[in-house]
Amino acid sequence: MRFFAATLTPLVLSFASPALAQSTDHSAHQQATPQAEEQVETPADPQATSAPDPHAGHSMTMPQATTPDPSAGHETPGMTTPPASSPDPHAGHDMPGMQMNWPGSVPESAAMPNIETSADNDGRPPEAPAPTAASEGPAHAADLFFDPAQMAAAREQLLAENGDIRTSVVIIDRLEATFGEGANGYVWDAQGWYGGDIHRFWWKSEGEGAIDGELETGEVEALYSRAFTPYFDFQAGVRQRYTPEADRTDLVVGVQGLAPYWFEVDVAAFLSNKGELSARAEAEYDLRLTQRLILQPRAEITLSAEDVPELAIGSGLTSAELGVRLRYEIRREFAPYVGIEWSSSFGDTRDYVEARGEDAEGARLVLGVRAWF
Predict the structure, then answer these.
(1) Rounded to whole angstroms, what are the CA distances from 343 to 6, 41, 70, 78, 360?
(2) In angstroms, how far apart are the furthest CA atoms of the chain?
(3) What is the pLDDT, as a whole number, of residue 132?
(4) Which residue has the higher pLDDT, 35 or 181?
(5) What's the pLDDT at 90?
(6) What is the SS3 assignment for the chain?
(7) Separation between Cα atoms, residue 340 and residue 295, nearest integer Å
(8) Segment 221-279, tens digit of pLDDT
(9) What's phi and psi for 252, nearest 5 deg?
(10) Whole-number Cα distances in Å, 11 to 4, 52, 293
């Protein structure tokens, strides 16, 4: 027994000496830790039975910006921190499959994709012509795989549902009462259409009269309308006029649409069944003060190529109306308004009007409503 004890004792001491030395070394570090830091002890590994925890006594508290790192200068086995001035070991290495779009690293032709736009950009790459095979074969490639009769019916249905829709609208532009120095009156001005985007049937009606008197003028138009630009329609048809003195039936040719800067214009020429040639031009502009409050200036002039004493119309510029209306859209389809309008007759027409004892010029207050459905 003494022989075995003498033999095993040097072996045990030789294996235990590294652990003891390491424990002694870390204990020195523990004493060098600033006492201002909180000492947090790491619990010992439950699986370790004989060797002490090599990290026992190390502080886990992160040092503040002003406190020097107590672990500075200590090396962790297996981890090597390159110095700040050492070059990037990956600099200049090519990574297949990854392309970095640094300035100057991509050709100019590849940096600008050929995207279809309406802008005339000289910097776009040239566009190659379509291959000749694109213009060969049937007009409808689906007919090669499906019944051509069924495909033709489907195309007609698609056209009807997306490009040949029939719509209708009725617009009461002015339905108002007028209050002036001479007499109080009423005015109506309405129009509407039925049809598609290109071809439409268009009707118009307007007139005026005295509230306590008879109708002064009234007319109804029936027109064929065809769009010749996205914003303008050509119109042609007939007009039936009524006045206390005489009636007239006129042929109508005109243009109606939306001019640049959002001016709504309506210009028409009339040739009556008596051979009398006249014209009329109207213009309106909606100035939106708010989403519901709209200020609308309006102007209208009429001209005649000859004197028509029967209708109290002289040649040249016969009359003009200038007005402004402020409306409030309770709904987009219903808007009451208030405004003021000035009207005057000119030339021989002025003489005819004054000869009948009427005012040739004057201003009046208007109260009305604008609606559409």
Answers:
(1) 135, 100, 96, 99, 8
(2) 157
(3) 83
(4) 181
(5) 60
(6) CHHHHHHHHHHHHHHHHHHHHHHHHHHHHHHHCCCCCCCCCCCCCCCCCCCCCCCCCCCCCCCCCCCCCCCCCCCCCCCCCCCCCCCCCCCCCCCCCCCCCCCCCCCHHHHCCCCCCCCCCCCCCCCCCCCHHHHCCCCCHHHHCCCHHHHHHHHHHHHHHHCCCCEEEEEEEEEEEEEECCCEEEEEEEEEEEECCCEEEEEEEEEEEECCCCEEEEEEEEEEEEECCCCEEEEEEEEEEECCCCEEEEEEEEEEEEECCCEEEEEEEEEECCCCEEEEEEEEECEECCCCEEEEEEEEEEEECCCEHHHCECCEEEEEEEEEEEEECCECCEEEEEEEEEEEECHHHHHHHHHCCCCCEEEEEEEEEEEEC
(7) 12
(8) 999 999 999 999 999 999 999 998 889 999 999 999 999 999 999 999 999 999 999 99
(9) -125, 135
(10) 11, 19, 103
Which two three-digit tokens encode residue 20? Answer: 């003891």
